[in-house]
Amino acid sequence: MIAFPNCKINIGLNIVAKRSDGFHDIETVFYPLSLCDALEVLPATTPGDEDEFILEGMSLEGDPQQNLCMKALRLMRSVVHIDPVKMVLLKKTPSGAGLGGGSADAAFTLKMLNSYYNAGLTDDQLKAMAAQLGSDCSFFISDTPAYAYGKGDQLEEVTINLQGYTLVLVKPPVFVSTAEAYRGVTPLPSAISLKTMIQQPISAWRGTIKNDFEKNIFSHYPVIAAIKDVMYDMGALYASMSGSGSSVFGIFDRPMAVSNRFPDCFYHEEVL
């Protein structure tokens, strides 16, 4: 069985409070993109029938057994019998980009295994399991635009019409960890909910919808701030860093094949 876990962007991100459990309460809007990895699950082929994890494409640091796909596999085994498997992940979504690529891989692992082994779990049950793997993992179960709050794991459907707009996504060769991003922010409740602001015309987003991580991260990584400036110079209706960075996206009302403006950067363009 094979699946294609897609990534997402954050349209706005407000850090509203520090929680007693050490996490933060946020509000953001998740919007899915077509940029995706490829994940295949096969019967194990190693002697002893142990689970295998093979990574292709972009490299990832860390112990392969601690990859979110493997964690999702072990979590699903707590509710249904699964024979040893071989997982092959073709990584196309850059890590440390604020795009939720690893979270998508984990969520799609849960969905694939639930279907293949006839576990019969509902989407709500899968979302509860996904939340144990990461705050934004639950989003990828439904994988439709959503207003997220709490740690980012509480979701409400939201209507956003971006049909026909062009999105340009750029990630410089800079890695920003989530822990680093949070160290420089001061939580502050929003005067107006992002759920309300997102209903404005896109042309009004520039002055009202912000990402609270940008101020601190831009001061430490000017290259990220420069990409956002270039987006607006190119005529973006709205541009922002996604999540905790380091990718930046711009929304345009026309095609924008300008990858040469961003040398040495990861580049993706799609019509929404």
Percent of residues in β-strands: 25-35%
Outline: globular
At the first level of CATH, the class of the largest domain is Alpha Beta
- List the helices and strands in order: EEEEEHEHHHEEEHHHHHEEE
- Alpha carbon gap, first and last residue: 27 Å
Protein architecture, described:
The strands form three sheets. Strands 1-4-6-5 form a four-stranded mixed sheet. The chain has a four-stranded antiparallel sheet with strand order 2-3-7-8, covered by helices on one side. The chain has nine helices and twelve strands. The chain has helices spanning 68-77, 101-116, 123-131, 139-142, 178-183, 194-197, 202-205, 214-220, 222-233, and strands at 2-3, 6-18, 24-36, 38-43, 52-57, 85-91, 146-150, 154-157, 166-171, 238-241, 248-252, 266-271. It is 26% helix and 28% strand. A hairpin with a 6-residue loop joins β10 and β11. The two termini are 27 Å apart. α8 (214-220) packs across α9 (222-233). The longest helix is centred in the middle third of the chain and has 16 residues, at 101-116. The chain folds into two domains: 2-157, 2-Layer Sandwich (Ribosomal Protein S5, domain 2), CATH 3.30.230.10; 166-271, GHMP kinase, C-terminal domain (Alpha-Beta Plaits, 2-Layer Sandwich). With 272 residues, it is α+β, with helices and mostly antiparallel strands.
